[in-house]
Design brief:
This protein is mainly beta. It has helices at about 5-15, 20-25, 450-455, 465-490, and strands at about 30, 35, 45-50, 60-65, 75-85, 90, 95-100, 105-110, 115-120, 125-130, 145-150, 150-160, 165-175, 180-185, 195-200, 205-215, 220-230, 235-245, 255-260, 265-270, 280-285, 290-295, 310, 325, 330-340, 345-350, 360, 370-380, 380-390, 395-400. The strands form seven sheets. Strands 1, 2, 28, 29 and 30 form a five-stranded antiparallel sheet that branches. Strands 3, 4, 5, 6 and 7 form a five-stranded antiparallel sheet that branches. A hairpin with a 2-residue loop joins strand 5 (about 75-85) and strand 6 (about 90). It is globular, with a radius of gyration of 26 Å.
Length: about 500
């Protein structure tokens, strides 16, 4: 007969596995420490946008200035900086665009013919700037055109698989009582554009549309989301909306109120690992326990599920939440939210094969006010996240190693342009009628990631069977010892 003590020990082994291996079974990612990309560049840096190319590099832009704010309607920025991440290190940031009135970057995309496009605005209009991918490190190589749209508040770009460039914009002229959500498309890489197609108009003295985003699915259907801000609520967001076009942007469905409620904002559309499936997520603001919502479509947006509350107690009006997919079809939901200690941190949640979103895990636990993330997957198995840190007013970056197989980047067709800035260069201020590009001397600093961050160490080199054996072996030896002691004792008696 097995002694009762042995039975009790065996039950404890089954109920309480070894805690040292718990993180491996939970699937936590191996991520670098957060690194500031913009430190010492300007007094205030915010609103980073990132895009990865097919050569294994990241391209990052952000806005900088001297007067900070909590959203893109409040900031006072006059310069747009650019940096590229390659071989585990960021290049020296270069101020590629500037305006003596206001310069705020809205979006960044890469075309199939290796052109880098950026939309940005000043107080009076929307601009499109572009440069060859391998020459974007010098402001002298950027070309800018005025899109001829007055009073644009925000814009967004998307490049589809036919290399068509889709643009959505929200214009707002409260003094005139005018406002509009419009669409344009370019078929020649951004050189020429269609006439603006108005999706809707509104009273600009009472409403404001913000956080606009456009996405084109594999069928060519266009999807647009935004949130409506109300003058009656001190211009805070009061609802999330959606419209769709299956006629190449010539006609649009009537705007759908996806979610109506105070502080509902930052809608975002992302593709999933499953063909034909789309996600739309959004958040609720400070003061509400319900925080992160999502709905999905399995037919490219023709019909959508009802809104589903996924995460609670991750509050804050703290930016859009992109979902990205790695080479193993695992989906990663990137978000900002308030932590129990009162800080605001950047989190990721992931799921595979629709098995449900995991508990969010922070990648910025040491920082206090991390918001407005953007993210992309590079080489199939690297998760890159950038965001604003409002304590230091800097742009931060982490890279996480994923389990999926690596997709080897293509070799560069030409050498990367020198990212250093000449000592003798000087700023050229913009007039009200003309956009000028500028270079400026920037502080020299070490932007190289430590070797441990360039090649993240895997969480474990042992197989699951080996890990289980190591976890159970100490307890098994204890049980064996007890059995031996009990057997010897019985013989003596």
């Amino acid at each position: 007969m097995i002694p009762r003590l042995v039975v009790a020990l065996l039950m404890l082994i089954l109920i309480f596995p070894a805690p040292i291996q718990s993180s491996a079974f939970l699937g936590e990612l191996t991520c670098s420490l957060p690194q500031s990309v913009s430190s010492d560049i300007a007094a205030f840096s915010a609103f980073a946008h990132v895009s990865g190319d097919r050569y294994g590099r990241l391209h990052l832009i952000w806005s900088s200035g001297v007067a900070e704010g909590r959203n893109e309607e409040q900031v006072e920025t006059d310069t747009i900086f650019y940096s590229v991440w390659a071989d585990g290190a960021w290049s020296q940031p270069v101020d590629i665009l500037t305006d003596n009135d206001l310069a705020s970057a809205n979006s960044i995309v890469i075309t199939q013919d290796d052109r880098l496009l950026v939309t940005w605005r000043n107080r009076n209009s929307l601009f499109l700037s572009q440069a060859d991918l391998d020459q974007a490190g010098s402001a002298m190589n950027w070309q800018t055109q005025d899109m001829g749209l007055g009073s644009v508040a925000l814009s967004d770009l998307f490049v589809d698989d036919q290399n068509r460039i889709h643009m959505i914009y929200a214009a707002h002229a409260p003094a005139l009582g005018q406002g509009a959500l419009g669409y344009m498309v370019s078929l020649d890489g951004g050189d020429t554009w269609s006439q603006p197609e108005e999706i809707l108009s509104f009273d600009g003295s009472k409403e404001l549309l913000t956080n606009v985003q456009i996405y084109a699915d594999d069928t060519g259907r266009l999807h647009v989301v935004w949130n409506r801000n109300s003058a009656e609520e001190n211009w805070l967001p009061v609802g999330v909306y959606y419209a769709m076009s299956d006629s190449s942007g010539q006609t649009w469905t009537a705007p759908e109120e996806v979610f109506v409620g105070a502080r509902a904002a930052y809608p975002f559309i992302s593709p999933s690992a499953q063909s034909g499936r789309l996600y739309m997520n959004w958040l609720r603001g400070v003061g509400y326990e319900d925080s992160k919502y999502i709905r999905s479509s399995d037919n490219d947006g023709e019909t959508w599920t009802s809104p589903q509350l996924v995460f609670q107690n991750l509050q804050g009006l703290n930016g859009a939440m992109p979902i990205v997919v790695d080479s193993s079809d695992t989906e990663y939901w990137i978000m900002s939210g308030d932590a129990p200690d009162g800080s605001t941190q950047i989190h990721y949640s992931r799921q595979s094969n629709g098995d449900g979103w995991s508990t969010p895990i922070s990648v910025s636990p040491e920082l206090r006010d991390s918001e407005f993330p953007d993210a992309t997957i590079l080489n199939g198995n690297q998760l890159h996240i950038v965001w604003n840190e409002f304590v230091s007013d800097d742009i931060y970056h982490v890279v996480c190693q994923l389990d999926g197989p690596e997709i080897l980047p293509l070799p560069m067709p030409t050498a990367v342009a020198d990212m250093t800035t000449p000592e003798s260069s000087s700023k050229t201020e913009l007039s009200a009628d003309q956009v000028a590009l500028t270079t400026a001397t920037t502080p020299t600093r070490d932007t190289t990631l430590p070797e441990s961050l360039r090649q993240p160490v895997a969480s474990s080199t042992q197989s699951p069977i080996q890990m289980v054996i190591l976890a159970v072996l100490p307890a098994f030896l204890i049980v064996a010892g007890v059995v031996f002691w009990q057997t010897t004792r019985s013989r003596r008696n």
